[in-house]
Fold:
Amino acid sequence: MASDKQKTGASAGVKRGPRVGAVAAVILAGGAGRRMFPHAASGGDKPLALLDGKPLLAHVVQCLKPQVYDLAIAVRGNSRLPPSDPTLAGIAIVKDPGSERDGSGMGPLAGLLAGMEWARQEAPYCPLLLSVPTDVPFLPLDLAARLAAHMQAIESDVLMVRSRGQLHPAVALWSTELLADLRRAVLEEGVRKVEDFADRHTRGELVWHRGGPDPFLNVNTPADLARAERRLAKA
Structure:
């Protein structure tokens, strides 16, 4: 069995996990980044914060892209496009539906809606959509495979990850059959929290039991970014 070090990303020698052909994925990159850029009145583009010389977004793409059939990045309207980085070449950029009104976005659930709309159009043979935030650079390389297998076993509509006692609502596998209800919840009912929408359906959890450093470490602040740099240096 591969070690935990081999099964996580965000390293120069990242290894590939299994690809799951029935799963598309969306990276939720529409956050305002106020905690990462506390001195900027309107925050900043956290996906572009540099970790080991590469944008956070590029680390997540490197971990996730080999695992899924297709991949998109959901951004808010006033986000800068990703930098010219070969890691990001050929990846669809979709905007959350609130972006057309004020450019600020409507939160992760709207990003999920943009991703699910894209998946139904561009990856219609993928009945499952994996969502991850842009600030988890150490994602497991077998995340999609384990989630898909567990979701099939328990027959849920949504499957979220719980690691070290913490639920990660944005790291989840979703049935794309939820699209119509998701559109209604976001655009007509004003639902904003991922958990609130998930609880309207059959929701399961996958408890990540493996030891070693937390593969779902969230990089939200400059201190978190420095911690991630130290972790990479040790690896």
About this structure: Confidence is low (pLDDT under 50) at residues 1-6. Residues 56 and 221 are 12 Å apart (CA to CA). The two ends are 19 Å apart (CA to CA). Residues 108-122 form the longest helix (15 residues).
